[in-house]
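Retro notes (design track)

What went well: tokenization of the new backbones is finally stable.
What didn't: we kept losing track of which sequence belonged to which structure.
Fix going forward: every design gets posted as structure first, then sequence, in one message. First example under the new rule, 231 residues:
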């Protein structure tokens, strides 16, 4: 005998519930294989599942779109910070800036090597140190570094910081909705199982082939193991 399998994706769950509701709408009330309670519950669960799925897709789309812009901002700020530090090191090597002033930037232990900027957290940390360090050095009478200037670095860093915080918010919102969907899947699966049980029970008196055909009309999906046929 074939065996049935509950939907394993949200789209499949929506399709299963939609199929039941559509079939019910075109079936005479006296011939319905489902109780009114199950029909009402199916409508409610479908509406909520569609709403949650739409919200998740919308938030995910926004996150992906924003991430494309974020990637560029990460690239820009990393480039500006790296170039600024390299110019700073060149100034130290030319004795235009005293080497002990590298401590203003937290770079005294870096041995004239550009610090690691491979992660977002490292960019945030070093960006703040470098901007604060340059401002402090200038406030004590130091000559500003140009090409890039700290003003330009600050602009790139501000754009990155804002986009980074937004990405965290987008991710948090998307994860929250995904969690709601995950919790609701059990409710949907439980209902689909109960509906399928009731549909199958109402068609037990029909011959096997006819019974399976009727059940499929209400969205029940059957699978055959290799070599099996309808009995």
């Amino acid at each position: 005998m074939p065996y049935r399998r509950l939907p394993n994706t949200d789209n499949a769950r929506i399709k299963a519930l939609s199929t039941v509701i559509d079939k019910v709408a075109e079936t005479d009330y006296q011939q319905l294989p489902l109780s009114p309670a199950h029909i009402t519950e199916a409508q409610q669960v479908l509406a909520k599942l569609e709403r949650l799925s739409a919200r998740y897709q919308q938030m995910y789309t926004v996150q992906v779109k924003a991430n494309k812009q974020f990637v560029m901002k990460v690239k820009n700020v990393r480039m500006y910070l790296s170039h600024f530090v390299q110019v700073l090191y060149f100034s130290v090597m030319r004795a235009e800036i005293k080497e002990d002033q590298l401590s203003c930037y937290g770079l005294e232990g870096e041995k004239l090597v550009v610090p690691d900027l491979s992660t977002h957290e490292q960019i945030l940390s070093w960006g703040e140190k470098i901007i604060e360090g340059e401002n402090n050095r200038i406030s004590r009478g130091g000559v500003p570094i140009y090409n890039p200037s700290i003003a330009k670095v600050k602009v790139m860093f501000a754009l990155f910081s804002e986009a980074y915080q937004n990405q965290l918010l987008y991710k948090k919102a998307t994860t929250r909705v995904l969690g709601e969907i995950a919790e609701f899947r059990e409710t949907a699966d439980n209902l689909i199982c109960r509906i399928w049980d009731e549909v199958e029970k109402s068609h037990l008196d029909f011959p096997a082939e006819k019974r399976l055909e009727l059940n499929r009309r209400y969205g029940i999906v059957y699978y055959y193991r290799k070599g099996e046929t309808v009995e």
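Added context from the reviewer: The chain has one domain: 3-223.
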